[in-house]
Specification:
The protein is an alpha+beta fold and 414 residues long. It contains 14 helices and 10 strands. Strands 1, 3, 4, 6, 7, 8 and 9 form a 7-stranded antiparallel sheet that branches. The two termini are 41 Å apart. 30% of the residues are buried.
Length: 414
């Protein structure tokens, strides 16, 4: 749950506010009444409000929350003394100030502050057991008159979602850092790998042995060929290279001459055997046709799901494919770890419901007319499109919340 979408933020409320105060805040807010009524309904439901509580500041006084909100809104409110916050509040506060810490690095400050902030978040999350989180939440619930949280499985699911949110938030800040700072932070985190908690381990695993890239690439299906355009290095080129350049030019001219001679010979031979060529010989079958007939497979059933992550399938995903001649393969990708989570196959015109793991994912879809397996998908004619944005699948305390997806009709010719 994003900070500015939290129902507590929308209403300007705290976790200790009772039902009457929440209603008063919703009724006195100016603007879209539907927005405030939705936030009110969310917080009045003891089961649903857990996700909002875990993303807010339980146990923190209203004046300090006001300071934190001002920071999140980009106002110069100064740092908040958070030494006596509980772990949930500390983590959420540090995530709020993390972009400002990174900005200080950009303007010349040392990296230590940013590294220490990430280490603090990691330390506080490692110390946040399910039992401890329940105690933090239920203290404020008792003050507000709401029923306590008692389900350990529910708090475990929300803690998992919180972990994903933390890693995603830190990763976003890191990828916006200048290269010198980015390299320093990642090098420091890699040195601490295995000695710290799950957040640093996730960050290190997400970015491997190198810093996060400044630009993202579209992920490919496992086993599919990856094509990369490589630009030649420009630095280090000087007049000392003149001999090599001249030699390369001579070789190039000579090579062009050979190609021209081969073209003439081929044209003559082709003209002599044009009739045989037109009749078609199995020996002249193209490489594509040979590959095509050897690799084509029966299409899977519509709604078949590949679970690459191995995580429990809990949240629903409804996918509708347009009518036409194309089959579809929908891929879920973890935007932080850049791992493929799962994929679902759809026939044209079909609507399928599948269950997927909890988390936030980027959605890509592929389409084509014939199926060649999960590694190659629809063969050389495979078309890939991104849906844009990120879809969230989470436990709101009562239900596993999912999404519906209607695939657009592709404008392509195969």
């Amino acid at each position: 749950m994003k900070f500015l979408e939290n129902p507590f933020y929308i209403l300007g409320a705290g976790t200790k506010d009772n039902r009457e105060e929440l209603v008063r805040l919703a009724e006195t807010k100016e603007g879209d009444p539907g927005l405030y009524q939705d936030a009110l309904a969310f917080l009045l439901d003891p089961e649903k409000r857990l996700a909002a509580e875990m993303s807010w500041f339980p146990g923190v006084s209203p004046d300090k929350i006001a300071q934190i909100v001002a920071i999140a809104e980009g106002k110069n409110a100064g740092d908040v003394y958070h030494c006596f916050f509980n772990e949930i509040a500390k983590i959420n506060y540090l995530l709020v100030i993390l972009p400002q810490v990174a900005e200080r690095v950009r303007t010349g400050a040392v990296l230590d502050e940013l590294i220490v902030t990430i280490e603090e978040i990691d330390e506080y999350y490692a110390a946040l057991s399910g039992e401890h989180a329940l105690k933090i939440i239920n203290v404020d619930r008792e003050s507000a008159g709401f029923s306590p949280v008692e389900n350990d499985e529910r708090i475990a699911a929300v803690l998992y979602y919180m972990r994903q949110r933390i890693v995603r938030g830190i990763g976003k800040v890191l990828t916006e850092m200048p290269p010198f700072a980015l390299d320093g932070v990642m090098r420091s985190l890699r040195e601490r790998f295995g000695q710290k908690g799950p957040i640093i381990r996730d960050l290190t695993a997400a970015y491997g042995n190198s810093p996060p890239e400044q630009t993202r690439t579209v992920p490919v299906t496992p086993g599919a060929p990856s094509y990369v355009n490589v630009a030649p290095q420009k630095n280090g080129r000087s007049q000392d290279n003149a001999g090599a350049i001249i030699a390369a030019a001579i070789v190039g001219v000579f090579g062009i001459g050979i190609i021209y001679v081969m073209f003439v010979v081929f044209s003559v031979v082709f003209g002599m055997y044009a009739e045989d060529w037109e009749q078609g010989s199995t020996a002249n079958t193209s490489a594509y046709e040979s590959w095509h007939y050897d690799s084509a497979q029966d299409v899977p059933l519509s709604g078949y799901y590949w679970n690459f992550s191995g995580e429990p399938l809990l949240a629903p995903l409804d996918v509708a494919a347009p009518d036409g001649d194309f089959y579809y393969y929908v891929l879920l990708v973890d935007p932080v770890m850049e791992h493929e989570v799962g994929g679902v196959f759809l026939w044209p015109g079909e609507t399928e419901e599948v269950d997927v793991p909890l988390g936030e994912y980027e959605i890509y879809y592929y389409c084509g007319t014939e199926w060649f397996g999960v590694d190659t998908l629809f063969g050389p004619s495979t078309v890939i499109e991104g849906m844009g944005g990120v879809m969230s699948f989470y436990d709101d305390g009562e239900y596993y919340m999912g999404n519906s997806l209607e695939l657009p009709c592709p404008f392509l010719t195969i």
